[in-house]
Write a structure and sequence with these properties.
inorganic pyrophosphatase (n-terminal core), 37% helix, globular, alpha/beta, Diaminopimelate Epimerase, Chain A, domain 1, six-stranded parallel beta sheet
Amino acid sequence: MDNDGVDKVIEAFRNRDNFLITAHVNPEGDSIGSQLAVYYILKRLGKRAVMADHDDVPENLKFLPGSESITREIPKDFRLDTVIVLDCPVRDRIGRISDCIDERPFIVNIDHHVSNGFFGNVNWVDREASSVGEMIFHLAEKMGIEIEKDPATALYTAIITDTGMFNYDNTSKETHRAAGELIAAGVNPKAVHAEIFEKKSISEIRLLGRALTTLQLEEGGALAHMSLTRKMYSEEGVDRVSTDEFINFPRSIKGVEVAVFFKEDGITREEINVSFRSSGRVNVNIVAAHFGGGGHALAAGCTLNCGLEEARDKVLGGIRKALGVGA
């Protein structure tokens, strides 16, 4: 752990007063869980804080206590002096929240992505951590702040979603220790797993089915990609649902080196969210960074402001080049 980085974060938390907590577009378990835990820490310190994201909280994470307080707008009467950006390698990945932030606020950047751009006034980046949730657990521990059941549940959610239930290679002995301490604080692992993974609507399953009809294999089976369009959402009568698991289907096919999932996300403009997964041969963080995104060597993402076909052409071209089969 970067002790200098965490010490500077603690100093900022103790010495500053009005905090905005935010994270990347298309939030998932790590970003939502970490925000809730940081909010809890700040309130324990007697600070004023609000949480605002570019997108809504996914349905499967709304069971987390306090998630209803995460909005999509910064209250107009809130005079922030500090922005805490969580789980975000570059500032632009917080989406339109970045447009709402004056250039003057002090930025605290807490992240675990290898591609982090160190864009904050304070930067605590731990590339060895499984998740930002694990980092926030250590932060609370170092500050001597007892983690009660609700924030413990948020942090446990952050850890299990970013480690694939402890199956990914970012899982460490320290990850398991943190999870064990959170369980000791009152987390019910079975109940959390059920809320996140086992309470899908029929529309969500049908939406997955529609996306799977677009699944294609290329380059001798080394490249798999699939897409989800706004039309598919409309036909199933759903708006925003968690699609974090969709990428696992092309990723799980035997022989696939790189899996890519394209999702049309723009309602008023063309916007394509892209998720990458690699079996190890290709560093998808490098590919994502080329398009303004980032992440990890085996898992990354980016957003393109263009149509779906153009996004496919650009991204798949980059993947083919990385595989050594295209110019």
